[in-house]
Design goal:
- By secondary structure, this protein is an alpha/beta fold.
- The protein folds into 3 domains: 231 residues, FAD/NAD(P)-binding domain; 100 residues, no CATH class; 105 residues, Polyamine Oxidase, Chain A, domain 2, CATH 3.90.660.
- 40% of the residues lie in helices and 24% in strands.
- A 7-stranded mixed β-sheet has the order 7-6-16-17-18-15-19, sandwiched between helices. It has a 5-stranded parallel β-sheet with strand order 9-2-1-13-20.
- Strand 1, helix 2 and strand 2 form a beta-alpha-beta unit.
- Helix 2 packs parallel to helix 18, helix 11 runs antiparallel to helix 12 and helix 12 crosses helix 16.
- The protein is globular.
Length: 489
């Protein structure tokens, strides 16, 4: 009876979304304050968000490929604490397919010279020297940022076509801050030194990484179970449909829960604090009463890139050795290909077959998105053969997963729109938004987790600006949360 009273009187924290940010926030809150009770509401059937692991007839597959590598010590500690012996070390092997040839990635000097030729390699070096000596004074777009650091020639070869395929817009329309986050401090000089020596000092080009033996979803299933064992709640098929607010506080969250028979049940979950991870466009639309018109207009300006993965089951186990292959060719629609046995053999139900993920970047409702599953499987099998990776006839089965709002777009309008939205949300004393879509930032899994950790600490009295967490900062070699904590005290 005493335990029930303590739980009843404890502060309740509603967490919208059971992805890396939301689940990390809930667990961090429990770790630092057993009094607080996290209530996680998730609209889907699986935890992990885009880092979940789907399955089909015993084949497990990752939605996009999630390496577990970070320089944020507390994130690394949490991974190992949760996973223990279920964390395996995976050697990285990836290549780029470009102009009917495969390039090792990270680049290897002899492979690159053989594919691109000595003459063209010389032109790339001269182009690099030209732009380093006389860079563009304006550096607002992705294109300008990359050319200033790599030269126009290398940009035309290895950046332009793939960027257009991923985002569906010209690199001239993508802001330079996306490049600064995702490419980090990589330079042509580093690429050449790495290619010659085999050294590797750049985060995006690591040669091995950790990975849960059953896929990234295994991590988040374990976190879910720990949250529940410690008195928290994780409610599946429960969508946050309205956020009820008054003054400077969010009073509660209306949740629409779908039962096994498809019936909807609505209720309002009272909240002392609310942490959000759903996309900002959906979040602003859910506030009741509605936010001011300029805030709603800003949210409507945010854009997203959607994604689907066609998982092909092959009748032989090892069609190619790579973990993944980037497809820069415009002759096929596929953008990236995953080989799930190369991530972990335990994601396969047997040793006789392979599971290959054909990843297509698209927009919800466009031609690719609207194709039937059967047609997408047919397309994936045909393109796998066209690329010379496996015969079409070897594909014996397949499955399709569609993912909306997979990537927030960094176009010319997003920065101003975010400023308006963040300014309005900043008025609330018991509400924070975190994670990739909750901040409209193309964060990796560890960065999203970091925003969840900081948000949980804010609830307990610390003062961290989660909007400032980005790839560049969190990948600094000497990045330490403890410095932030000391300043906050």
């Amino acid at each position: 009876m005493q335990d029930q009273e303590v739980k009843k009187d404890s502060p309740r924290v509603v967490v919208i979304g059971a992805g890396p940010a939301g689940l990390t926030a809930a667990l961090e809150l429990q770790k630092r304050s057993p009094r607080h009770v996290p209530v996680v509401v998730e609209s889907g059937d699986l935890v992990g968000g885009i880092a979940r692991t789907e399955s089909y007839k015993g084949f497990r597959f990752d939605i996009g490929g999630h390496r577990f590598f970070t320089k944020v010590g507390e994130v690394e500690q949490m991974w190992h604490e949760i996973m223990g012996d279920d964390f395996i070390v995976v050697p990285r092997k990836s290549r780029i397919y470009y102009r009917s040839k495969f390039y090792d990635y990270p680049l290897k000097i002899f492979n690159t010279l053989q594919n691109i030729g000595v003459y063209e390699s010389g032109r790339i070096i001269l182009s690099y020297a030209k732009w380093r000596m006389k860079p563009s004074r304006i550096e607002e777009s992705f294109e300008q940022w990359v050319i200033n650091r790599f030269g126009r020639r290398l940009y035309m070869h290895f950046f332009r076509s793939y960027t257009e395929k991923v985002w569906g817009i010209s690199p001239r329309e993508i802001r330079a801050d996306w490049a600064a986050q995702r490419i980090k401090n990589l330079s042509l000089w580093k690429v050449v030194i790495n290619a010659i020596t085999g050294a590797n000092s750049t985060t995006s080009l690591i040669e091995k990484f950790h990975y849960p033996r059953l896929g990234p979803g295994m991590m988040w299933e374990k976190v879910r179970d720990r949250i529940k064992a410690q008195g928290g709640e994780v409610r599946m098929r429960s969508r946050a449909t309205r956020l009820l607010w008054e003054g400077r506080r969010v009073q509660g969250v209306e949740v629409t829960e779908r039962s096994a028979d498809g019936a909807d049940h609505r209720y309002v979950e009272a909240a002392d604090h609310v942490l959000n991870t759903m996309a900002l466009t959906d979040l602003i639309a859910a506030f009741d009463p509605p936010p001011p018109e300029p805030v709603r207009a800003a949210a409507a300006r945010l854009r997203y890139r959607d994604f689907l993965i066609v998982t092909l089951i092959l009748d032989h186990p090892d069609p190619f050795p790579d973990n993944w292959v980037y497809i820069h060719s415009s002759e096929v629609k596929v953008g990236r290909i995953q080989n799930f046995r190369a991530w972990s053999a335990e994601m396969m139900p047997n040793s006789r077959q392979a599971s290959i993920g054909m990843e297509y970047f698209c927009h919800e409702g466009d031609g690719l998105w609207a194709m039937s599953d059967a047609d997408l499987i047919e397309l994936g099998a045909a393109e796998l053969e066209q690329l010379g990776l496996a015969p079409k006839a070897s594909v014996v089965d397949g499955s399709v997963i569609r993912q909306v709002k997979a990537y927030p777009v960094y176009d010319g309008e997003y920065g101003e729109a975010l400023d308006v939205i963040a300014g309005w949300l900043g008025q609330f004393e018991n509400f924070q938004t975190i994670g990739r879509n909750g901040l409209h930032r193309y964060n990796n899994q560890d960065h999203s987790m970091l925003t969840g950790m900081l948000a949980a600490r804010n609830i307990l009295g610390e003062r961290h600006d989660v909007w400032t967490v980005n790839v560049e900062r969190s990948y600094h070699e000497e990045f330490e949360l403890k410095r932030k904590e000391q300043r906050a005290k």
